């Protein structure tokens, strides 16, 4: 088992190194220059030369690459040209907002999508099944940005139920004396028992979570249904019915348990995908997460920030799937690591 873990972790590091290499050289061959970001319009030749020295762009390309790899191994991704802070500090201040949003969204998607998928398989070729399949097709087909805008127009513009954007009301952040503890605002408000802030944060989260959940809900409904259709044909399911066991116990304990391995794979892949895909949702709802941060970095040619976020998202995606691989052996002890 240890050998398998080291092997998988080594592969993870190798992929991260490849992402770092590709990202570095792509940012160097693009026509835009970070010098423009630093100096603005019409800089003098002396200013350009000085800026290149400060950024290390006057050095040979391979030397720049070796220096960046060395610093990255120590967790130093440079200084953001837009914010003036280290990229590591910027990522730390923005990633918790994204993780909070994505974690709640995928939890809701699994809790709702899996039961719907199970009943869709049980009621195969009925109205229930047709409705679930139609829901999954619509969820995949509707673009996230369009869904987000429609939700804003309905629940903010027409009904006035939820805020338009942001993570917390500015006046409440100032006047309530709310001080984040963990960085997860919903959890922090509950810990401090500040229910006014809790309700405000929750109201700001509803629309972005709904946008993320509806698109991933379709994935879990479709995947669970397809897996359950095959499992329900197995002999032990028919035997359970013959012995008079509770149908819900058969479907949600025995049959669903047999689908956990592929279902866990989908959950892990989807969670990693959502961390990067939240860019659109965060931009529409002005959510101060890692997605909006990298969009602003791309727009302003903030190369250190773009490279740092790319590595962070790649590492997060790989780490989630690494953890899922290890969970396999807890779910099904019959599995043995492939050395």
Automatic annotation (TrEMBL):
Q: What are the annotated GO cellular component locations?
A: plasma membrane
Q: Which residues form the ABC transmembrane type-1 domain?
A: 95-328
Pfam families in the cross-refs = BPD_transp_1, BPD_transp_1_N
Q: What SUPFAM superfamilies does the entry give?
A: MetI-like
| Keyword line | Cell membrane, Membrane, Transmembrane, Transmembrane helix, Transport
Task: Please indicate if the UniProt record lists rRNA-binding as a keyword.
Answer: no
Keyword Repressor part of the UniProt annotation: no
| Topology versus the membrane | Multi-pass membrane protein
Q: Which InterPro entries match?
A: BPD_transp_1_N, MetI-like, MetI-like_sf
List locations, semicolon-separated.
Cell membrane
Sequence intervals crossing the membrane: 101-122, 134-159, 201-221, 251-274, 305-329
Per the record, the GO terms for biological process are: transmembrane transport
- UniProt main location, coarse: membrane
**Family, as annotated:** Belongs to the binding-protein-dependent transport system permease family. OppBC subfamily.
Spell out the protein name for this chain.
ABC transporter permease
Organism equals Vibrio amylolyticus
Its ancestry begins with:
Bacteria, Pseudomonadati, Pseudomonadota, Gammaproteobacteria, Vibrionales
């Amino acid at each position: 088992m240890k050998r398998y873990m080291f092997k998988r972790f080594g592969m993870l590091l190798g992929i991260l190194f490849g992402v770092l290499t590709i990202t570095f050289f792509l940012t160097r061959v693009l026509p835009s220059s970070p010098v423009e970001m630093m100096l603005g319009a019409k800089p003098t030749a002396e200013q350009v030369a000085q800026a290149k020295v400060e950024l290390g762009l006057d050095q040979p390309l391979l030397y720049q690459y070796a220096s960046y790899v060395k610093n990255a191994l120590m967790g130093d991704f440079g200084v953001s040209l837009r914010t003036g802070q280290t990229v590591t500090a910027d990522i730390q201040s923005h990633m918790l907002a994204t993780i909070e949003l994505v974690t709640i969204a995928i939890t809701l998607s699994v809790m709702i999508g899996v039961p719907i998928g199970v009943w869709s398989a049980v009621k195969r070729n009925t109205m229930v099944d047709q409705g679930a399949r139609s829901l999954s097709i619509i969820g995949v087909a509707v673009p996230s940005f369009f869904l987000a805008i429609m939700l804003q127009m309905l629940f903010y513009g027409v009904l006035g139920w939820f805020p338009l954007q942001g993570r917390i009301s500015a006046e409440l952040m100032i006047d309530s004396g709310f001080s984040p503890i963990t960085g997860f605002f919903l959890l922090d408000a509950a810990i401090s028992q500040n229910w006014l802030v809790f309700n405000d944060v929750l109201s700001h989260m509803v629309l972005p979570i709904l946008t993320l959940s509806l698109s991933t809900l379709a994935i879990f409904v479709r995947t669970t249904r397809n897996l359950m259709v095959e499992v329900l044909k197995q002999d032990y399911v028919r035997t359970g019915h013959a012995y008079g066991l509770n149908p819900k116990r058969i479907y949600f304990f025995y049959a669903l348990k047999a689908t956990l391995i592929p279902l866990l794979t989908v959950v892990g892949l989807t969670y990693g995908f959502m961390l990067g895909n939240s860019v659109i949702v965060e931009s529409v709802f002005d959510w101060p997460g890692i997605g909006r941060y990298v969009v602003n970095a791309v727009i302003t040619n903030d190369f250190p920030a773009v490279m740092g976020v790319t590595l962070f998202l790649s590492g997060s995606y790989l780490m989630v799937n690494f953890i899922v691989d290890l969970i396999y052996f807890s779910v099904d002890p019959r599995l043995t690591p492939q050395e």
